[in-house]
Structure formats: C-alpha cells, structure tokens
Amino acid sequence: MYKKLNNTQLYKVAAKNLGLKVERIEKRERKRWEVLMISNAKKFLIISGAAPGLFPEVRRWNAFMSGRKILTQKILKKIGYNTIPTKEFIMADFSSAKELTTHLSKKKFTYPVLIKRNEGQNANMITLAETNQQIQKTAKKHFASKSDFMIQPILDQNEYRILVINGTVMLLHSKENRFILGDGHSTIQQLLDEIPSVKRDEVFEAWQHKKAGTKPGTILKKGERFEFHLTKIPSTDVYETKKIPKPIQKWASQLSKDLSASVLGLDVFIPGDFKDSNSYTIIEVNSNPGLHYLSEYCNDDSSAVRIYEKILKDFFKK
Questions:
Q1: pLDDT value of residue 124
Q2: How many domains does the chain divide into?
Q3: pTM across the whole model
C-alpha cells in the first residue's frame, strides 16, 4: 500500500491517522525533501527528508556527529564501544596531493580495503581498493575536494540495522549485498546486463570474480548467487519489529543513553548469534534514518507509519 511513498508522505499518513494538521510550507525539487508543518491546537513541528530532518527531537550536535564518520568513531571508542579498525587521513595535515600520496605509499594495508569519505552518509562515497595505487588515485580526489577520509578493512560478518527511538528499539533487520541468481544457462554477464548500470559496482564485481574464480562468461548454476554491489540493502533473513532479542534491546538502548541520542539508526556487524553484545562492532550511526524502504525491501507496509506515529505521539504529548 505504501510502496511508492517517501518518508515525508509516510509522515502525512501517520499525522492524519492521529488527527493532526499537515501543511506543506516549503516546496522542493525533490518531493522527498519538501518541508512539512505538522500541528495540533497547541504546538507544531517541521520535518523533511533533508534538513531539518525527520525527527524533531534530534539534537544538532547528534546530527553533526553522525554526519562525520571519524568523529563518530572517536566518540564511540572513547565511551567503550567496538568500531572497525580505521586509519584516518585529514587533508589539513598535508600541504599537497603529492605529500598525501607519498605518505600513503609508505603505509601497509591488508587488501582489499574500503575508502570512506568522512562527511555524509551516502554509500556512493565508499570506494573499494585492492592496491596502494588505487588508494592513492582515490586519495587525490579527496585532496582536491578537501574531503577527509578513512581506510578500513572489509569485515566478512553478518550486518544488521537497528533502529532506536526515544530509548526503545523499534526495528531490527539483516542486510545483504545485491545479487543475481543463476538460472543454469545464462552467463554472469548476461544476468548483470539486466541490471541498470547505475545500480551496479564494476570494481566490486571484479573483486567478486577474483574471490570466486569466475569470469563474466561463467554460467551460474540454478540458484547460485553472485553479488554485484558493495553497498548492502535490507533483507528479511532476520526481521523483527516487536520481538527484539533482549541482548539487542539492552545494548542499543544503553548506546542511545550514552550518546544522549533520541534517534539512532545503527549499522552493526554481529558475527554470531545476538547473545554476546561484546562482539558487536558498530559500522555507522545515523541520526536521520528513513523508513520508506521497509515496504519495498522487507514487505512491511505498516511499520514505517507505526514508527512515525510514535514519533508524533511522543512529541505532542509533552
């Protein structure tokens, strides 16, 4: 029912369900970024898919922190949480691109690695590199744009998204790489050609071929998977909106308190079952996580609206 609705449109549904007034007060080129005012007789809030964001009680410094990966990692480590081993590179430390690349040429990495731009949460800002030369090439681009970056190993562990709203864990789901399935007679390249080029990652595809010992002309067996994009998408291998495992509830709620954060969209590696929270490794923290994808990827038409209703109820009852 809500498959094609963006986050602001889902908010409209939630607000109307609660008898609240909804007005569009600023039009944007992209509908998901339009600015809405939601109100009752006593108070109002303003929301948008972009600034000012989807969650009215997120502190500005929480949003600032979550938009900067290096800062997020420093704070998480300082308060005792596991993060991915990281080497950070601050452009202000280097007077030229040559100085930066010379510095990088002396560094040792276990390949492949991920190069992540410090600011923002767009997956397009992540690059895979298998050689120091590839790292240097990407680093030059970062220096030209004065964008700090970090280099991390690729961890082959189960990845999950955890959503915390006002101290309550509202959602847990698994994530997986985009993949094609073999049909027993088509080559990998033939199957990939059916995927729009904007949704593919050629560097990642080449790495997958190298890992699996396949080539573009390899025919996949029926049901055999071939992953073709670095960025993971939601999956329903694990999907919970009500029966959240207790170790997840306890750990994520405590993290929310430790960060003084009313909203947390957490991407987390968990290598085994959920029992040992000491094994959790935080990938990223998001203070403005959208929920529009739940209908499309997780076949869940109700949770996004239900969660937005909770946000509105919590705000307007105060």
A1: 60
A2: 3
A3: 0.93
